[in-house]
Amino acid sequence: MSEVLERVRKIVIDHLDADPDKVTDKASFIDDLEADSLDIVELVMAFEEEFDIEIPDDSAEHILTVGDAVNYIQEKLSA
Amino acid sequence: MARRVVITGVGLLTPLGHGTEISWKRLLEGKSGAGPITAFDTTDYACTVACEIPTVDGRGGGGPDIEGSFDASKVLSNKERRKVDDFILYAIAAADEALSDANWHPESEEDQVRTGVMIGSGIGGLGVIAATALELKEKGPKRISPFFIPSSLINLASGQVSIRHGLKGPNHSVVTACATGAHAIGDAARLIKYGDADVMVAGGAESAIVPVGIAGFIACRALCTAFNDAPEKASRPYDKDRDGFVMGEGAGILVLEEYEHAKARGAKIYAEVLGYGLSGDAYHITAPSEDGDGGFRAMSLALKDAGISATEIDYVNSHGTSTMADGIELKAIEKFLGERAATGTVSSTKSAIGHLLGAAGAVEAAFCALAIRDQIAPPTINLDNPDVETPIDLVPNKAKPMKIDKVMSNSFGFGGTNAALILGKVD
Asked: InterPro entries annotated for this entry (chain A) (predicted)?
């Protein structure tokens, strides 16, 4: 498992009080992890802080699953 | 015929404990909820005492094995907990208890739309507001939590309770400083009388034992500063050594219900809300008018609303904050009671729990309902040397078993806002 995935999973588990087993690559924040729109705003802020990056709102709109977040962050970090 | 309003549920989270019965028991035993402030470092603060809620993690004299200690994790998950300031957490905890006590869990649409919420707070999410201001300064506007606003707005206590229990009736909130709790109960009772709802979850919640809260009240010379070494002695209404109020925190929530509605479902009835009076001093931002006229008028209007005589008031739970204003209020009560003053009974339960600001009036109304239920007046603790001359029994240091049919509860707030509630026994 990639290091980014692990760090993203940790944030998601912590912020959403989510069952770690459910926080998989494919897990949707809203459909699988019971997040609402404000939870996602907060999650994105936590990702920004953890990885010291900026995620603009129009990019954040496309981050719907754990995997989306990992891919976006990996891309951003390697850019 | 006018609709009558009765109290069918009580929920309390006070500095004496989490739960109505434990709070009431300790109150009658003459226990104090005061201690050194554990919420933050009080170095450089002129006042270092407060009445904190005892918690399982050791705050406020609580602990995992101490009865009545508050466990926030039993009320909200960590995820939900981060979205509310403590005053909302306290309101939710007390509302849960009150609704369970009333055995009212509306599930049909009809019952839900007829049940409303009116929970107020004096200051609301002061701790969250202060912390967020610091974060804004340190990290800039992009780092502010999306939950900042909904966690600190005063009416979100009513909002959260309505969402949690599916209560779709009037959703309202009172903000009248230290009179909030009493106004919330009085206003909610009127909504029921007027037909807007059959059941109202009403009361107040406060969590101002935070650095800016304590520093702010120190600055307006309202807090006790002479008893930092003896916290349990600090709140002493009517005593000659009193020198300011002791900050408390917590929530008091009542379930108010239309009498026939309560009777039809066989609900337990604590007392009836007989009268409610409101007034303004139009005098000073923090001090009461010197002749106590505003308080007197609120009491008189409550009496008129109740349609009874002042001689029928068996017990008065005074505002009695342990400040110089105690004497002003007492004179107004004497005038109000008239010939009954000679055999009158008045106590200030703030001596035990401190001043819960926006929650005070609701917690004290709950104590009044319990006084009627158990036929006993709670004591004014630490009243060792009264500096007031009065024929009234101030119930010093020891609870007083007595016949209690009708009671009055006074609450006055900064800005010169006054409320009085009269409750009566239901046979």
From this structure: ACP, ACP-like_sf, PP-bd_ACP
Contact across the interface for B146 and A17, Cβ inside 8 Å: no
Closest-CA residue to B201 (of B7, B367, B372): B7
- For residue A1, pLDDT beyond 70: no
Across the range B281-307, mean pLDDT stands at 96
Q: Are B187 and B118 in contact (CB under 8 A)?
A: yes
Check: CB of residue B236 under 8 Å from CB of residue B383: yes
| Amino acid sitting at position B326 | D
- Which DSSP letter does residue B413 get? E
CB atoms within 10 A of CB A34: 13
* Interface predicted TM-score (ipTM): 0.87
Tell me the catalytic residues of A. Answer: 36
Which residues is B346 bridged to in the sheet? B316
| pLDDT on residue B154 | 98
Q: Long-range contacts made by residues B221-228, C-beta under 8 angstroms, separation at least 24?
A: B222/B286, B222/B323, B223/B46, B223/B47, B223/B247, B224/B47, B224/B49, B224/B322, B225/B46, B225/B47, B227/B49, B228/B36, B228/B47, B228/B48, B228/B49
Q: How far is CA B58 from each of CA B77, B156, B211, rounded to the nearest angstrom?
A: 19, 28, 19
Which CA distances in Å does B102 have to B35, B90, B163, B205, B255? Answer: 33, 18, 18, 19, 7
Cross-strand bridge partners of residue B280 = B417
Of B75, B67, B88, the residue nearest B23 (C-alpha): B67
Structure-token pair, residue A45: 């802020």
Sign of CA dihedral B75, B76, B82, B83: negative
Say whether B146 and A38 touch across the interface (CB within 8 A): yes
Residue B246 distance to chain A (closest CA, Å): 36
Yes or no, beta carbons of B147 and A38 under 8 Å apart: yes
